[in-house]
């Protein structure tokens, strides 16, 4: 019997990737990296890695006789094999390749999953992203053009909105109509991104209405001492495309709140000007510090266009 070190390393890598994906699902960490609609794909990937591990494990030990017969070198014909069976010596090129593959495994197992925070918001553009997004929405872009699977439940029943990720176009229009008719706006996780875009498209329409939301404190440049941004990160596919959205909020205790503090606030929508652009602002009437939500990120509503 001959033991093949590199084949064993490859088998270990496959098993480790399978274990890492399983661990992230088991601990509920997967949604800190990807949109929940891709969870099934990552579960399938974990199973495929496990299957490939079992296939690869058959190559770790081989009979010496089998090794001699299956080798590509044939003395009679002076023929040499041009491909690698995994038995060649470990050179610098292979070593670097293994390191690159193993790096995400090391970070995945040793480093805790971290939620994006205010420091990341700064690196991603901060207030510039918020104001640019508002400007773009005023140019007429509309989320209702998104496509996705069909869902046939009635969104008028609030109990059915839980865990909803997909709407038909009619259902989505009904949801927006409900927003336009409401005197009190509840920015729940499910509707946050859509309501946010609608409010920024026509701030005047929603001026004076009560609004309630939960977000983390972000203090961007150019804000007054009594102002902060109640923010959330919006993820379309994964954390790599995460963008910050949020409302400038005004409250006397703003300077006492540290960045990344999660706050649940109720207030009145008004209009303010930031960097020459009109933006919605919340004059906070009630607020309290809360713990970080189990699902800190927001995801766009997928709309099926019939």
How many domains would you count in the coordinates? 2
The total strand number stands at 11
Cα end-to-end separation: 62 Å
Give the helix proportion (percent range).
Answer: 25-40%
Main sheet makeup: 5 strands, mixed, barrel
What is the helix/strand order?
A: EHHEHHHHEHEHHEEEEEEE
Low-confidence stretches: 74-79, 141-164
**Mind telling me the C-alpha Rg?**
27 Å
General description of the model:
This protein is α/β, with parallel strands linked by helices and 306 residues long. It has helices at 5-26, 39-57, 64-70, 92-110, 118-123, 127-138, 169-181, 192-201, 203-206; strands at 2-3, 61-62, 166-168, 184-186, 210-218, 227-234, 243-250, 262-274, 277-289, 297-298, 302-304. The strands form 3 sheets. The protein has a 5-stranded mixed β-barrel. Strand 5 and strand 6 (227-234) form a beta hairpin. Helix 6 packs across helix 8. The protein is elongated, with a radius of gyration of 27 Å. The model is unreliable at 74-79 and 141-164 (pLDDT under 50).
């Amino acid at each position: 019997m001959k033991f093949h070190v590199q084949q064993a390393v490859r088998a270990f890598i496959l098993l480790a990737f399978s274990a890492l994906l399983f661990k992230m699902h088991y601990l509920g960490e997967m949604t800190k990296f990807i949109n929940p609609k891709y969870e099934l794909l990552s579960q399938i990937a974990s199973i495929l890695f496990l299957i490939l591990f079992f296939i690869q494990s058959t190559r770790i030990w081989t009979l010496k006789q089998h090794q001699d017969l299956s080798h590509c070198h044939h003395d009679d014909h002076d023929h040499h094999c041009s491909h690698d069976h995994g038995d060649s010596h470990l050179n610098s090129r292979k070593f670097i390749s293994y390191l690159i593959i193993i790096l995400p495994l090391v970070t995945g197992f040793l480093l805790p999953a971290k939620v994006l925070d205010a420091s990341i918001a700064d690196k991603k553009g901060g207030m510039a992203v918020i104001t640019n997004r508002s400007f773009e929405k005023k140019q007429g872009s509309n989320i209702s053009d998104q496509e996705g699977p069909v869902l046939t439940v009635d969104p008028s029943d609030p109990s059915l909105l839980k865990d909803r990720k997909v709407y038909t176009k009619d259902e989505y229009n009904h949801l927006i109509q409900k927003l336009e008719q409401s005197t009190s706006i509840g920015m729940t996780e499910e509707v946050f991104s859509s309501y946010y875009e609608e409010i920024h498209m026509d701030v005047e329409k929603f001026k004076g209405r009560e609004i309630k939301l939960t977000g983390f404190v972000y203090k961007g440049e150019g804000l007054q001492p009594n102002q902060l941004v109640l923010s959330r990160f919006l993820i379309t596919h994964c954390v790599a495309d995460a963008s910050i959205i949020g409302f400038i909020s005004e409250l006397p205790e703003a300077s006492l709140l540290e960045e990344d503090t999660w706050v649940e606030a109720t207030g009145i929508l008004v209009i303010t000007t930031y960097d020459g652009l009109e933006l919605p602002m919340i004059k906070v009437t009630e607020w309290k510090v809360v713990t970080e939500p189990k699902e800190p990120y927001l995801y766009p509503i997928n709309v099926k266009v019939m």
